[in-house]
Amino acid sequence: MSNYKAIDDLVATYKHGQESPDNSPERESSRVAGQRLVITFKPLILSTMQCMTGIGPADYEDAYQDGVVAFMEGMKKYDETKGGRFNAFIKTHLQLYYRKWQSGQFNHSVTAEKLLSAPAGSSDGLTLEEVIADEAIDLEGCYIEREDQQRLWQSVHALSARQGKVLYQSFHESKSLVQICKEMGVTHKAVRKLRDKGLKNLKKSLKGVPF
Question: CATH assignment of 117-206, given 1.10.10, 1.10.1420, 1.10.760, 2.40.30?
Answer without folding.
Answer: 1.10.10
